[in-house]
Amino acid sequence: MKNNKLGTLPAIPYIVWMAIFVVVPLILIVFYAFTNEAGGFTMENFSEMGSYAKVFTRSFGLSAIATVICLLIGYPIAYAISKESAMFQRIAMMLVMLPMWINFLLRTYAWMSILENTGLLNTFFDTIGLFDLINWIGVKFASDPAAYEPIKHFQMINTQGAVILGMVYNYLPFMIMPIHSVIVKIDKSMIEAARDLGADSKLTFRKVILPLSLPGVLSGITMVFVPSVSTFILSRLLGGGTTMLLGDLIEMQFMGGAYNPHLGSAIALVMMIVVMICMAIMNHFGDGEDKAVML
Amino acid sequence: MSEKIINLENIHKDYGGKVVLDNLNLYVRDKEFVTLLGPSGCGKTTTLRIIGGFETPSAGVVYFDGKKVNDVPPNKRPVNTVFQRYALFNHLNVFDNVAFGLRIQKKYSEGEIADRVNRMLKLVSLPDYGDRMSTELSGGEQQRVAIARALVNHPRVLLLDEPLAALDLKLRKEMQRELKAIQQEVGITFVFVTHDQEEALTMSDTIVVMNKGKIQQIGTPTDIYNEPKNAFVANFIGESNIVDGIMHQDKLVSFCGRQFDCLDGGFAPDEPVDVVVRPEDFEVVAPEQGQLVGTVKSVLFMGVHYEIMVETEHFTWTVHSINYADVGDRVGLFLTPDDIHIMHKS
Amino acid sequence: MIHNKPTRSGRLLTALTFIFLYAPILVLIIFSFNSTKSRTVWTGFTFDWYIKLFNNDAIMTALGTTLLVSALAAVIATIAGTFASVGLYAMKRRPRELLLQVNNIPVTNADIITGVSLCILFVFLGKFLGFELGFGTLLIAHVTFNIPYVILSVLPKLRQLDKNLFEAAQDLGCSWMQAFTKVILPEIWPGVTSGLLMAFTLSIDDFVISYFTAGSVETLSMRIYAMTKKRISPEINAISTLLFLVILALLIIINIREVQQEKKAAKKH
Asked: In percent, how much of chain C has pLDDT > 70?
C-alpha cells in the first residue's frame, strides 16, 4: 500500500490548512467555553446553561422522534428501491437526493405555505367541507351548543409537530441513501445461501439482510440526528419561535442580541459531546463497523 | 446400481433469447460424486443452480426422488450448496454460520445444535474455530466452514460451485483429497462444478463434460480420458493431437498420407473423421522404424517427461517421451492400433 | 428466480415518498407564476416575479457573490485536495488514518459547529491582525468545508491505481510533475471532476457556515434567509424554481457521466 516514491510532500499545505481552520477553531471553542470575557478561567458558562435545560431536552427529544420516523419510513423505501432494476434505482436515488440540493430555507419555506392556517392544506380541507362536517358534528354532540366554537382550520404551523415534519422532510434522504447503498452491496450469494440453508424470504430478511444492512442504518441515524439536533431557523419558520432549539440558542449567542460567544461555545461544546456519546453508544451496539459517514 | 436421486429431463434455459442450456438430459445416482466439467459459459453452473432451485428452467422437468420439483424454492429442497466464493455471513462468527440452517429448522435444542456444529467443525479440521469471525479466516478455512455449514443440515445432495477455484495450487490439491474423503465419510451425493479437468479426473465417480449448453459426454474418468467421444472432449480432457483423417472401412484409417490400423468401427465408408492421439501414446523410435518421420522443433523438460514437438510433412505432433531428443534430430514416431482414437467430425 | 421481486406495497410506498418529497417543491414552482402575492390561491399566470427578481439588486449581488465564492472555493479546494490526496496516498497507514479522522470532522460535525468555530477563529485573528469578517473569511470557510469532500472522492480513485504506475512513469524518464500530470492525473480525473462538482454544489447550497463567517457580505442563501424573515415575496419562489432547474441539470450531467464511465469500465473487462 505504501508508495513512498510519490512522496507525502503534496499533503503539507493541506495539513497546515486543516490544522489552522479545523483543529484550532475547535480548540478555541473549548478555550472560550472555559473562559469569561476578561479571559479568566471559569465554569460559569456551564452553570448558566442550566436555565436552558429545557432547550436541550426539547432539541434531543424532537430530533430523536424525527430520526425514528425517518428510519421507519426510510428503511422500507430503501429496501423497496433496492429490488428494482439498476436503471430504476439510479433514477430513484437521484430523485431522492435532488431535494437535498435545494436550499434548506426554500424547502422549509414551501412547507410554511402548505401548513399555514390559511395555507394549502387548510384551504383544501375547507374546500372539501371537512371543517363544516366537524363543526356540524361538534354542535350536535356539544353539551352546550351555544358555547361551541366552530373550527376554521387545523393548527399545523407553529407546533412541535411541524418542526418534526420539517426535520423529517429535510433529512429523510440522508436516511434512505446510506441504507440503500449498503443493501445493494449485499452479496447476492449470501441471500442465496440463506435460502439454501432453509430460510424463507421473511427469515432471510430478518437473519441476513437486516443485520448486514445495520452499518447503513447507523450511518443514516447519524446523518439525520446530527443536523436535526443542531438545526436552527427551522423552529423559527415552522415552530413559530415557541420551540427554540439548540441551534437557535447557539446562533443567538453569536449573531443575535444575546451576544455571548463564551456561553455559545459552552453550549456548542456540550452539544458536540452529547452527540458524540450518543453515536459512540450506538456504534458500540452495531459493532462499530463503518463509522465513517460518507456522502 | 443405486437409484436415481436427481433427474433432469429435456432442460432448456435461455436468458432473453440467449440459450444457456439446450435440451439437457442428466441423472445423478444416490451417493455418487458427479462432476460437471466444461469451459466457462458452458452451462455447468446454470445446471447446478437449477438443481439448487436458484434458477427455474425455461422448459423441461427437474425430478427429485421421482417427484417434480420445478416450483419448489431452494429452502424447501433437501440440497445444500457450497458457493463459489463461499458466501459466509460476515455478520456471524463461524459457529453461528454453521448453526444457521439448524436454527432455521427449529427442530433442535441449542445443546443438540452445539453438538452437531462442533462435530462438523471437527470433520472439516476446524475444531475450536467457532468463535472466530468469518472475515478473519484464510481462503482455505472459509472453504471448510462453507462445507461444514452445508453438510451439518444432512442434505441428500451437496452442490459445490467451483469451490476450489479461489485456492492456491497446493491447498487445492489438499482440499481435493479431503473433499473426496468427506464425501465417502458422510456418504451423500456430491454434484461438483469445475473447469479444471484434472480436478474432475481425480475426484469424480462420474464426469459430465459440457460445452455450449450441451452435454458432450457422460462417463467414468477412465472412459472419458481413454475413449473421448468427440474432438472437444479429447482436447478438453488432457492434451491431444487432433488431425483430419479418412475412415476407409472398419479398423482402417488414413491420415498424414498413410494408412493405419485402428480399433474403431461403425463409420460410413470413406467418412472424413477426426483422429486423436494422446502425446504420451507415441513411441519415439529411429527414423527408419517410424510410421511417421519428422524433425524435432523444440524440447521442453516437464519434470517426469520431455515435451517434444515433432514436425512431419503434414502436421506438428506434440509428443511426451521420457527420452531426450535434440532439436534438429530426425526421429520416427510409432503408434499401435489402440493408440489411435477415431471421432465423428463435430 | 428467488431474488426479491419488487412488491406492490413497496412500489406504493416509493410513490408516496416521492409525492411527499416533491409536493412542496411543486407548490413553490407553481406559485412562482402566480399573478398575486397569495401563496395559496391561484389568481392567474405571470412572469412578473422573474422579471422583478432580475431587477432586484440585492438578490443579483448576492447571486454574484455566491457564484464567485463557490467557483473560487471549488477550484482551490479541488487543487489542494487533489495534491493532498496524493500525499495521503503515499503516507504510511498510521498518520494517514489520523489525518482522515481530522478530514472527517467537517463532514460529520454539525454545520453550526463548523460555522461557529470558524467565526470565533476569524474574530480572534481579526483582533490581532486587524481584519473584519467579509469575502476573504467566507472564501476560507468554503474552502475548508469543501476540501474533505474532494479528498473523499479522489482518494478512492488513487487506491484503485496500479501501485507501480507512478514508478513505471518515472522509470520511463518522467519527472515527478510529468509523472503526475501525464499518468496519475488522467487516471484519477473522474474523481477530481466529481469532487469539483460536489464542492461547487455544496458551496452554492450552504447557508449555515456562510451565515457565521461572511460578515456584512451576503450570499444568495443569506439573502433568502433575510427575505423569509420579513415580508414574503413570490420572488423567493422564482429563485427556487431557477435553482431547482440548474441543480436538476447539474445532477443529470453528473449521472450521465457516471453511466458513461461505468460503460467504459465494463468494456475494459
From this structure: 97
CA distance B94 to chain A (A): 15
Nearest to B201, CA basis, from B168, B237, B236: B237
Burial (0-12, 13-18, 19+ Cβ within 10 Å), C202: buried
Question: Is there a contact between B53 and C2 if contact means CB atoms under 8 Å apart?
Answer: yes
Q: What is the pLDDT of residues A200-234, one digit of tens each?
A: 889 999 999 999 999 899 999 999 999 999 998 88
Measure Cα distances from B48 to A146, B31, B81 in Å: 80, 17, 9
- The CATH code of domain A53-116+156-261+276-285 reads 1.10.3720.10
Same domain, B70 and B9: yes
CB contact under 8 A, A189 and B74: no
Query: By the CB < 8 Å criterion, does A210 face chain B?
Result: no
Residues B210 and B250 in one domain: no
Q: Examine the fold and report which residue of B231, B261, B280 is the final residue of a domain before the chain moves on.
A: B231
Query: Residue B257: pLDDT above 70?
Result: yes
The alpha carbon of residue A90 is apart from the nearest alpha carbon of chain B, in Å, by 23
Q: Which of residues 2-61 of C touch B (CB under 8 A)?
A: 2
Mean pLDDT of chain C: 88
Closest Cα partner for B318 from B238, B245, B205, B214? B238
* pLDDT for A246: 92
Q: How far apart are CA A55 and CA A45, in angstroms?
A: 16
CB contacts under 8 A, B 160-179 vs A, are none
The distance from CA B186 to its chain's CA centroid, rounded to whole angstroms, is 21
Q: What are phi and psi of B193, to 5 degrees?
A: -110, 130
Count up the domains in chain B and report the number.
Answer: 2
Mean pLDDT across chain B: 91
Which chain A residue has the Cα nearest residue B88? A190
pLDDT tens-digit map of B72-125: 989 999 999 999 888 899 888 999 999 999 998 888 999 999 999 999 999 998
Please identify among residues 235-264 of chain C the ones whose CB lies closer than 8 Å to any CB of chain A: 236, 239-240, 243-244, 247-248, 250-251, 255, 259
* Co-location of B140 and B210 in the same domain: yes
Report the CATH number at residue B308. Answer: 2.40.50.140
Q: Is the pLDDT of residue C237 over 90?
A: no
Q: Of all residues in chain C, what percent carry a pLDDT higher than 90? A: 51
Residue-range domains of chain C with CATH: 55-230 (1.10.3720.10)
Average pLDDT of span B215-225: 94
Domain boundary among B169, B202, B231: B231
Per-residue pLDDT tens over the stretch B40-71: 889 999 999 999 999 999 999 999 999 999 99
* B191 & B244 share domain: no
- Whether C251 and A94 have beta carbons less than 8 Å apart is answered as yes
* CA–CA separation, B41 and B211 (whole Å): 8
Cβ contact (<8 Å) for B91 and A203? Answer: no
Q: What is the pLDDT of residue C2?
A: 46
Asked whether residue B304 falls in the same domain as residue B201, the answer is no
- Nearest by CB to residue C6, choosing from A24, A83, A109, is A83
Q: The domain containing residue B126 runs over which residues?
A: 4-231
Residues of chain A contacting residue C113, judged by C-beta atoms under 8 Å apart: 29, 230, 268, 271-272
Partner chains of A (3+ C-beta pairs under 8 Å): B, C
* CA-to-CA dists, residue C43 to B167, B237, C33, C52, C152, angstroms: 74, 82, 10, 18, 48
Which chain C residue lies closest to B75 (C-alpha atoms)?
C2
